[in-house]
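re: ur question from the group chat, yeah i did fold both. here u go
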Amino acid sequence: MPVGEDQAPLIEQTNELVRRLNRQVGRDLLPEARALIPPIGRLPGVDGKVKMSKSQGNAVPLSATPDEISDAVRRMFTDPNHLRASDPGRVEGNVVFTYLDAFDEDSAAVADLKDRYRRGGLGDSVVKKRLNGVLQAVLEPIRSRRRALAGDRGYVLGVVKEGTIKAQEITEATLREVRAALGLFAFD
């Protein structure tokens, strides 16, 4: 299950309940969940704060327009001591490099940018320009698909209804199986 690193303890608590129930019934009735945490973990806000938040205005929404993405990248926190391109810069804690690590598929190019930035001779604008291009490329297909789906509300409602029915069927079957394993009977 894809979750942020802050959700991992909740997954473990759920797994403790699953293990307890499985021990009680003497078999693996319910599967344990596995937290799928991305390598980057949690993305910081564009202002460098620990957590990205829509309410704090430091997020890049998936629906952001190209101009909104460019504006967010321009506002991104870098190294406050990197005043001139010739100054050596810090990559650690630099939001722009955190986002490049998360979204730029060319890790060799990102590593080269990091080396040049640390040595000095690379300005923030060059790194931000690359990140802007990467985010534009990542978010464009999402924006396009969202626009297409927004134009077909009937399809979206159908998908939601179909998913709800399927989830209810799975839930009811699992509940019947758990009740039977525990010797409980449903009273309708």
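okk and heres the other one u asked abt
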Amino acid sequence: MLTGVAVLCCVPVLASALPATVPALTAHQLEDRILGSQRLSFSGYAESDATFGLPPLPAFSGVTPLLDGVTRMRVWQATPDRWRVDTLSDAGENDTYQIGDDTFVWDSGEELLTGIYGPEVLRLPRAADLVPAALAVRIIEDAGPGAELSLLPPQRVAGQSAAGLAVRPASPESTIAQADIWASPATGLPLRVEVFGRGVAQPALSTQFLQAGPWTPSASVLTPQLGPGTGFTTTTPAAFAGVLQNLRLVALPGRLAGFPRERSPVPQIGVYGSGLAVFAVLAFYSPGIGGQLLGDALDAGAAAVTFRDGTGAVASAPLVNLVLVQPSASDDTFLLVGLVSQGALEQAAAVLAADANAAS
């Protein structure tokens, strides 16, 4: 009996120590398999570890733990629009169910299930975005056809031999120097993703499955269940967007800091650049949420900066940079955040402040 228990306990250790062997694939063949893995049904347990180093802003309190710290996730996916991701913590869990265009969120602390009916075009980042399978596909798609691809030595991930793919964005303006992806060579399911900033030896974001495999979809797992004492409420995507529902629609220039403005599904958000060299511009009413954001950023350690036409705050991190600017003669506060250099965001903020003052 004791011998059998000892053998079972040693299995995971022995599996991780085995050499990784994968069939011969080209970088583009592995890329194609990773992109094709979106149709797979799978389940697993994953952990992400992020060290972005951005100041903790109360208005974005739900996002901060994802960008600085370890996030533990239990994942089930039937299709790209039918899945469930449970975020686990010492305080409880927060479960997200995707059922077509509708989303359901369970908060164990509040014992509340919230139904969000309709596609969430405007939302903050969530734990499901850090699942290796989702993050790897997004990186490859956003890197674009000009990205440089190369093979990495295989590794053992989640007890499996995984083939490695390095993705280097084509744009020198991107804060991302390289993303390393290890995936099952047979199915293409991404098992580990590491994202590196420029000039940094350690990944700013690492996420991996500790256990993953094929899964037969089950309605009982993918459908939220209301137990005794559980509350239920419904809302719209716009009302569930948190601080983003306070955005103002303002006129923005067609180009900022050399980046052209791209088409955005949300009129209130200006998107500049493309792929992995992109940043967003959001406008908030100054005396309200905008002024609070600026004050919170400075209180949290962001560096104060003075522009010719306003004041603001700057926070720099390996992957994401953030600038807030409050024009001296305008009622708007602009938040600029994205995967481009701090200098580019400061240059763009200076233009926005000047334009806002001129329009006032």
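fwiw on the second one: Residues 5-15 have pLDDT under 50 and may be disordered. The CA atoms of residues 192 and 219 lie 28 Å apart. idk if thats what u expected
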